[in-house]
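Hey everyone, long-time lurker, first post.

I ran two proteins through the pipeline my lab uses and got sequence/structure pairs for each. Pasting them in order. The first:
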Amino acid sequence: MIAKRYQNEWIVLAAFLLMAFSFIYKNVQLSSQQEMLFGTKKTVQELKEVIALQKIWADKKIAQNVTKLQSLVPPSKLTWSSKNKNVTASYSGLTSRELNAVTSKIMTLPVEIKKLVIDNKGTTYDLEFQCKW
């Protein structure tokens, strides 16, 4: 008897609860879609970066650019060894200007630097450099 008396109120309560659960479900779904979209955008951006790096690393002119390091200083200050895609260079008795020229050129090359050691000996510098590409 009480159920019949409040039948309309029970229907309104059930409709309100259904509406509240639907609203919560919709918000959860939207936030998960946004997270998925953000993750997808991030993955696409990373793939674009990888593709760009692959293009840079596949460039045939990298070897030519690396060999330009030989012409920055006189040959008497340089010991050069190149095997396949690996280069080992030792510079000795460099002035500060020569050191700056060599290091700035090294940092602009698209190579993997294995070793870069700079020693200060008074007013001259020694530099050891190993890289691969």
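...and the second, right after it:
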Amino acid sequence: MTKKIFILLFFLGSMATFAQSKIDGKWKGTREGQNGTVELNYTFKVEGDKLTGTTTTPRGENPIENGKVNGNKFSYTMSFGEMTIENNGELVSDNEIVIKTQRGEMKLTRVQ
């Protein structure tokens, strides 16, 4: 009996470890820039409480750094030369994320 309980607990723990976060995937949004509206594309990958990924703009691709996840909330930094921007995000629905930075707020929608 003890062996069966151990196997069941191990199986359930393994499933939780490999469960995909709803933050994972491709997302898109827009931000007002100096020359008008700029499209931003994000790819997020969650492993445990760690967030990795990239953002792609017309200027190229940048990695997400120092990413952390806590439930539906997450944070990360992005570096542009000497400048580092802190980002705080929240998954508000299965298809919408809100990201806040010192430059304002941006909504992202899931790419289907």
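Reply from user beta_strand_b:
Welcome! Quick read of the second one: The radius of gyration is 17 Å. The longest helix spans residues 2-18.
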